[in-house]
Design brief:
76 residues; mainly alpha; 0% strand
């Protein structure tokens, strides 16, 4: 648990749990959370928009805005 505390203080994203029963519901929930997070990080996103929304985005952000770059900011 000292390692978890140090990692948290250094800003690393960690999840720590202390239990004697590895099959407890708390452990299973945390493992499922980590699996879901890994799947989200490996997923791709496809935006399907109507022509009117595309026109609105173009009008709001202008032709000089690279929407792919905006979306890539969320992937960091």
């Amino acid at each position: 648990m000292l390692g978890v505390s140090k990692a948290l203080s250094e800003g690393y994203p960690v999840i720590g749990i202390s239990t004697r029963n590895l099959a407890s519901q708390a452990v299973i929930t945390k493992v499922r959370y980590l699996v879901a997070l890994a799947r989200l990080r490996m997923s791709k996103v496809l935006f399907v928009v109507s022509p009117s929304l595309k026109s609105h985005l173009y009008w709001q952000f202008g032709p000089n805005t690279d929407m792919y770059s905006v979306f890539s900011l969320f992937n960091q």
